[in-house]
Amino acid sequence: MAEQDFSNDRGANQSLLQRATHAAGTSAFAADDLAAALFPKSDVRFSDRMLSFSRQYLKSLVFKIEKQLCLVATQRFDVADETIAAVAASDQGHSLPLLEQAGIINSSEILGHVFVQAQKAELSLRLVQKISQAELERILTRHLDHADPAIAEAAMGLLVAQSREGGNSDNSNAPISGLPAEIMHALVWPITAAVAKLAGSTGSELVAAAESVLSEHDESDSAQSRADRLARLIDGSADSAAQNLHPLRDGLELFVARLSLRTHLPASQIYAFTADRNMARLVVLLKSMNLPAEEALSIHASLDGNGESMTAASYHEIDIHLASRLVSTWSANRDYQAAVRMLDAQDAGALRR
After folding, report:
1. Which residues does 295 contact at the CB level (< 8 Å), separation at least 6?
2. Taking Cα atoms as reference points, which of 273, 256, 278, 275 lies closest to residue 327?
3. Neighbouring residues of 287: CB distance < 8 A, sequence distance ≥ 6
């Protein structure tokens, strides 16, 4: 009886036919997926928690952008399409499957941003294991009574931004207002094309709506931007007690912002450093700043989540001049760095032949 019911279920049959068609078209990539899992090209090892966060975060971004896009299209540009209206009113995403199947969402720019957010959440969870949540919350509130009103105001701005974005360890559902402009651009146009395809539309009204969404996007109020401002004010103050930076004294975002300010490296790059095995690049960065071994080891221990301890002897063995030279190459233009890596890989391939 169950088989008869199933065979008569036209919707179920159609769903299976669609899945079979999709499987036939993608089965050739199964070996690629296995190779990526067995033979990763980086030193980063992704935990199940990071992978889960990344999926949820990306899903949330696409949903919020497509919803905002369709709301603007229906409310400002009087688009009457039923599909677009349904997406605007929906509480779940619709365009992500199309983007995944087409491989559009897999760009290194988008996934690089997702990776940084996943690592940021991971670091926040590690800090909570070493200091209570109440103590972490008090870290920034101490600046609210600072003698310099600009520092007090900036600290309040950062607290508000962090609250709005859901906290570092729980920001898989963060608002899109905090997205860097380049990531917003990288996501909006593919999502616009996917929604147009779903609606069977030429997309002219949606394109206008997308341009409106992008023109109004402002990342200056994001937690990262607020942390950058507070970092500049603190490091420029005469308060000697505030000059020593540490994630357990500054909180994660302010700590990374201060590191970024002092080393001229983007915060996203510093977060990526902490995902290395033994946080090798972060250690070299700290050495280039001539931080005492005791401070560097304490910073490393507070951010480490894999039991990869570092000794003072190994830190002292790092040549500060070589460390500084290496960091200077990391601060070069990213496109230049990418081109250098590609050329080096090409040379290595030629040598093997």
Report:
1. 244, 246, 286
2. 273
3. 296, 315, 318, 320, 323
Alpha-carbon distance 198 to 195, whole Å? 5
Question: Rounded distance, CA 206 to CA 99, Å?
Answer: 17
- Residue 60 CB: number of other CB atoms within 10 A? 17
Give one DSSP letter per residue of 255-295, joined into a string. Answer: HHHHHHHHHT--HHHHHHHTTSGGGHHHHHHHHHTT--HHH
What's the pTM value of the predicted model, to 2 decimals?
0.85
Output Rg (C-alpha) for the chain, integer angstroms: 24
- DSSP 8-state assignment for residue 104: G
Phi, psi values for residue 41, rounded to 5°: -95, -5
As a residue count, the chain comes to 353
DSSP letter assigned to residue 168: G
* Tokens found for residue 351: 């040598």
Alpha helices in the chain (DSSP H): 2-8, 10-26, 30-38, 48-75, 82-89, 96-102, 108-130, 133-141, 149-164, 181-199, 204-216, 223-235, 247-250, 252-263, 267-273, 280-288, 293-303, 312-316, 320-330, 334-352
Residue 185 contacts by C-beta under 8 Å, 6 or more apart in sequence? Answer: 214
Q: For 123, which DSSP code?
A: H
pLDDT tens, the chain, 353 aa long: 444 443 445 555 667 777 777 677 777 777 777 777 777 778 788 889 999 999 999 999 999 999 999 999 999 998 889 999 999 999 999 999 999 988 899 899 999 999 999 999 999 999 988 888 788 878 888 889 889 999 999 999 999 998 888 765 556 777 898 899 999 999 999 999 999 999 987 778 899 999 999 999 998 889 999 999 999 999 998 776 677 899 999 999 999 999 999 999 999 999 999 999 889 999 999 999 999 999 999 999 999 877 777 899 999 999 999 999 999 998 877 778 778 778 877 666 555 55
From residue 117, alpha-carbon distances to 113, 134, 227, 333 in Å are 6, 23, 15, 22
